[in-house]
Amino acid sequence: MKRRSLTTNISCCCLLFTCLAVTSMTAQQTPGEVEPQHTDFSGRWRMVKSQSDFGQFHAPDIVVRVVDQHNPTMNVHTIQTTGDKTTTTDLTYFTDGTITNNVINGRDAESKGFWDGAVLVIRTAMKTKSGENEQIADRWELSSNHETLTISSHIETPRGDFDMKMVCEHDNVDR
Question: What pTM did the predictor assign?
């Protein structure tokens, strides 16, 4: 009788181990399984000034962004005109949480991009012109028809927090 109990216990343990192993394997990504698709922001985007909100800051007259995204790398070329002054900026971000270093308005910046569902979040740490710490959290969202890009920004400085929103339309130059 003890022998039967021991055999039964060993069989139950083997069955339990097998169930746990199968559950563990199915919870992990299997070889050849494709990672979830993330939003592709590639394209030429033109700011819609009437739908954008720069809060207490002076809104630029024109902003054009050209995004070239090949996950995890996203290159962003921005041309911005305010009055008679035009500036260009070239930034690179990684969408997988890898930190990137860029120069924004002549200042060193460290950014980390990651996905929050279909939204790309880019957190940037840099110094203000007066040398104070500044934190920027940008949320990149694409409309369901892929024609509108909304970038919501939350900026934290020792002088206060600010929120801005830039709405851009897909600029189809072939139209």
Answer: 0.78
